């Protein structure tokens, strides 16, 4: 009997163990099944959250040829998402026109509604989105230009934040074209954008400078050249000139500090700007001598002012210096830039375009009044030289001076600061020789039928007309030494100015 009970008990324990084991398997299967379902749901949600590679994706056309790895997409803030959504609606026409007119009311009252209407229907292409191009673009968008195409291969860097118009720390590592579009959509959501994250090349000009929205769209009303690479700059300007496209080019804003020296004029008249000089020479070789509007500075480089920074000696020792630049033929050395000057260049460019598109009255070419003054001073100097030749028994008929009005302007404004070296007076100014030449005033007649004065720019000083008349008689005709007539302070000032001109002469 006891053995039977024992057997039954053992069988019951086995049943219980089997039941427990089966229950455990069922529970485990249920748990793993639920976890698998949850994982699938999570994966599906994650996949659906990844944006498609469309026109709004940051990495769509990031330039692989720069050797820089593709940046990680920066998560959009809620504010960015709202601005992007509003911009999409506005571009599709779902935006109250009264709000646009209210935002542009000050522009409309200045340009008149008709002028604003021209601006709103205009199409501008901006090539280069550094300090100049970014500020120009921001000004155009804020002012009412509704069709803007941006072209730039580069990305935002920490060092560009000192001069970029809208970039923030969050934009570092992202393409400049995308940064500009995203930031300005929050300001002017109705603007229609086309962005090309690539370098401008002549063989792609028809596409990059073609109609808005591909073939059949609106042609550019203006092209902005804000490139700092000489080869690309020349190629762009040549293309625009040959195809009759209106273009305005920014010359060098680096190493500049005086905003009062920034002018707008034809490239043939731009002076004292190394980038302008290099561009002008290259264009002349290609048959383009004039007809291109430029923004440039007549500020003179010199002692104590910023210059292109030299490369460390160890880099030269390694060889292959050209490999240090981002792209072939691009600048490898650092050009110091004061952030305010590129911004002013950009606003001057934008202002010129706005005036041109809306036919608002404006003048260019720097100062026409000063140009006339320089011409008059050159004429007076020619008369003075003729008088000196005749006073010493020479023939002055047909005498030519080896100087231009630009030389006169440079000497008067940059060297003598627009003042007389004797009295500091700034009116009725003329240029006159400081010393009587040892070999007299006889002109060079080595070329038959031509009389050329041997006068050099470094021999001239600035005085009032009355002071120059007395100086001419006592020093240039009577041949007295300036040291016999003027006090030491004037002599030191003249010596300082003439030494300054000698230093500057190597930049000419």
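Q: What amino acid sequence fits the structure above?
A:
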């Amino acid at each position: 009997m006891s053995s039977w009970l024992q057997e039954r008990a053992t069988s019951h324990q086995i049943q219980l163990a089997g039941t427990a084991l089966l229950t455990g398997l069922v529970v485990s299967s249920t748990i793993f099944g639920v976890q698998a379902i949850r994982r699938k749901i999570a994966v599906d949600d994650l996949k659906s959250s990844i944006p498609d590679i469309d026109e709004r994706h940051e990495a769509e056309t990031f330039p692989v040829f720069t050797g820089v790895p593709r940046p990680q997409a920066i998560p959009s803030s809620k504010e960015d998402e709202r601005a992007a959504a509003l911009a999409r609606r506005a571009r599709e026409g779902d935006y109250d026109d009264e709000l646009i007119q209210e935002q542009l009311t000050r522009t409309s009252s200045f340009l008149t509604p008709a002028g604003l209407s021209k601006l709103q229907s205009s199409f501008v292409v901006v090539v280069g989105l550094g300090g100049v191009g970014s500020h120009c673009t921001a000004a155009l968008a804020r002012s009412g230009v509704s069709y803007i195409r941006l072209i730039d291969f580069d990305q935002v860097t920490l060092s560009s934040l000192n001069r970029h118009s809208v970039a923030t720390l969050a934009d570092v590592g992202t393409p400049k074209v995308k940064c500009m579009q995203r930031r300005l959509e929050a300001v002017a959501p109705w603007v229609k954008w086309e962005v090309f994250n690539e370098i401008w090349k002549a063989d792609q000009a028809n596409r990059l400078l073609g109609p808005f929205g591909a073939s059949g769209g609106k042609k550019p009303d203006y092209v902005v050249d804000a490139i700092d690479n000489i080869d690309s700059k020349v190629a762009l300007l040549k293309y625009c000139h040959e195809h009759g496209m209106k273009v305005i080019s920014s010359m060098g804003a680096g190493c500049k500090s005086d905003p009062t020296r920034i002018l707008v004029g034809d490239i043939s008249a731009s002076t004292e700007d190394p980038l302008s000089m290099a561009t002008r020479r290259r264009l002349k070789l290609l048959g383009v001598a004039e007809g291109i509007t430029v923004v440039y500075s007549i500020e003179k480089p010199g002692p104590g002012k910023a210059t292109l920074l030299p490369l460390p000696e160890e880099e030269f020792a390694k060889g292959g210096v050209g490999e240090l630049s981002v792209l072939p033929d691009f600048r490898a050395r650092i050009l110091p830039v004061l952030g305010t000057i590129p911004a002013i260049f950009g606003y001057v460019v934008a202002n010129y375009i706005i005036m041109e598109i809306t036919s608002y009255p404006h003048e260019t070419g720097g100062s026409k009044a000063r140009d006339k003054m320089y011409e008059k001073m050159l004429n007076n100097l020619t008369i003075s030289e003729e008088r000196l030749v005749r006073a010493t028994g020479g023939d002055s008929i047909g005498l030519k001076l080896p100087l231009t009005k630009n030389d006169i302007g440079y000497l008067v404004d940059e060297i003598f600061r627009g003042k007389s070296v004797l009295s500091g007076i700034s009116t009725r100014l003329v240029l006159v020789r400081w010393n009587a030449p040892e070999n007299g005033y006889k002109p060079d007649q080595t070329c038959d039928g031509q009389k050329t004065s041997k006068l050099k720019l470094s021999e001239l000083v600035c005085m009032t007309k009355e002071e120059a008349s007395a100086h001419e008689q006592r020093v240039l005709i009577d041949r007295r030494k300036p040291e016999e007539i003027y006090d030491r302070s004037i002599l030191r000032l003249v010596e300082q100015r003439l030494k300054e001109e000698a230093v500057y002469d190597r930049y000419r």
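Q: And what stands out in the fold?
A: The CA atoms of residues 302 and 504 lie 7 Å apart.
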